[in-house]
Amino acid sequence: VAVSENTKRDLVSMLGVSPERVDVVYPGHGSPSGVTPLDERELRRRFDLGARSVLLSLSAKRRHKNLEPLLHAFSELESRPILVLAGYPTDYERELRARADALGITDDVRWPGWLSPEEVEGLWRITVGFVFPSLYEGFGAPPLEAMVRGVPVACSNTGATREVVGGAALLFDPHDAGSVATALRRLLAGGLEIDRLKLAGVARAAEFTWERTARGLLATYEQALAGWGAADRP
């Protein structure tokens, strides 16, 4: 069982598995939690956001998450919000912070590590958009987490990310900082395009339910058991 068509192709290509032996069953999204979002005033104080708008990215500080080109793209913006790069810290974060300093955007970037559920929900509530520049994902849950909350998304056109978001997000070439910057400008501009993406994102995320996952897994088990029984008969 693969969590995306992209992962299925990788299994077939790298392991030589027959395509007929691999079913694709999408996971559901983690629906909005029942926690109360952190009060906006406290949230802005805690992360030193002031009164500025917020652009959010959630991922580990790892190289394949491709945050360095995002920093370059962000530095090209004429009018910058606060970029919140939340996610568990790694040794690579030191390089990212040095790059932000070299680009002159240190005052515009925040680097929180692990966040409480209340902090995460608070950030979802105030962000103007979510950006996800990852080079590779087997599925890619964070964009869905944004879309189910009505947050517009800009993300990579590679890996499973494009497959998951469908036509409900702005896509960019994650290898090209200029392409990322263009998508960020469109995201921050708002207007009818972004209003459409918000609605399309909610509709797209609604397709990824755990009930659908369970039915897909059940069908896979039934098929596997039927084949096993047939092979076992004299």
Layout of helices and strands, plus pairs?
Layout: H1 5-15, H2 40-46, E1 54-58, H3 67-75, E2 82-86, H4 93-102, E3 109-110, H5 117-126, E4 127-132, H6 141-148, E5 153-156, H7 161-165, E6 170-172, H8 177-189, H9 192-205, H10 210-232
Parallel strand pairs: 1-2, 1-4, 2-3, 4-5, 5-6
Structure description:
The protein is an alpha/beta fold. It has helices spanning 5-15, 40-46, 67-75, 93-102, 117-126, 141-148, 161-165, 177-189, 192-205, 210-232, and strands at residues 54-58, 82-86, 109-110, 127-132, 153-156, 170-172. α4 (93-102) links the parallel β2 and β3 (109-110). α3 (67-75) packs across α8 and α6 crosses α9. The two termini are 29 Å apart.
Mean pLDDT: 93
Terminal-residue CA separation? 29 Å
The major β-sheet equals: 6 strands, parallel
Shape field: globular
Can you write the helix and strand succession as a string? HHEHEHEHEHEHEHHH
Q: Work out the helix count.
A: 10
Rg calc: 20 Å
Percent in helix: 40-55%
What structural category characterises the helix and strand content?
A: alpha/beta
What attributes does this structure have?
234 residues, alpha/beta, six-stranded parallel β-sheet, 11% strand, globular
What's this model, at a glance?
With 234 residues, this protein is of the alpha/beta class.
